[in-house]
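Run: sequence + fe (iii) ion -> complex structure.
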Amino acid sequence: MLNIGCHLSVSKGFKNMGDEAISIGANTFQFFTRNPRGGKAKDLDEKDIEAFLKLAEENKFAKLLAHAPYTLNACAADESKREFAIQTFEDDLNRLQKVPNNLYNFHPGSHVKQGVDVGIEYIADMINKALKPEHTTTVLLETMAGKGTEIGRSFEEIRAIIDKVELKDKMGVCLDTCHVFDAGYDIVNDLDGVLEEFDRVIGIDRLKAIHLNDSVHGFESKKDRHAKIGEGKIGLEAITRIINHPKLRNLPFLLETPNELDGYAKEIELLKSVYNG
Ligand code: FE
Ligand code: FE
Ligand code: ZN
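>> structure
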């Protein structure tokens, strides 16, 4: 079965996201842990979570993907911003204990000209301070397009971060198809080659989720502009190969395409129609 979902608004709670997901044919979803621009998170409502967990079990939901706010930059130059990142990260992981055993994805960060090595140190430091043995969530580093001074544009950078994390068992990767294509991994003409490289550098077992997006700009553009499925430079044929690839086909696929709910419903229907099995 294709495990598919999209990004949903958390503002009306978990049960509402579960209902929305079901209404568009999804069995997972992604949500921001708080306002994407940062700020304080609402307390999770126990009754709402309870209702959602029941719904998720009855409908055989796949793992959910929580996404950290975009403002979280573990390797900011400003110490107060790094401190905010550590606190936010730990607070998110603590709150996610109420929806246990899911995934928490974040953008590794932008080193803002301090250099990649310094950035990687700060990112690992944040994870080591925030992630505790009792956390049931798996932390995912997202592969990035490489715009500006983004870290995570190469599999080597992702690997270097994981190498410095103490609780490695709790670490994984979310591969964003738009980002890796923009960063220069040719998933259109050489998907097998890219996945072999991922396996050699990081280890394919670390791959826990896919952000399924087409890309407005071309290969190696480093632009990071998501397109609707089949309407960008990756195209439906390559995306069909991605969702059916033996190493990927059982992972949760999350759409972050420019759509409202009805647009997502159509994309999900299209993807199910080209999924074998
Ligand atoms: Fe992201
Ligand atoms: Fe993404
Ligand atoms: Zn993106």
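>> summary
Residues 4-274 form a domain with the TIM Barrel fold (CATH 3.20.20.150). The chain has a mean pLDDT of 97.
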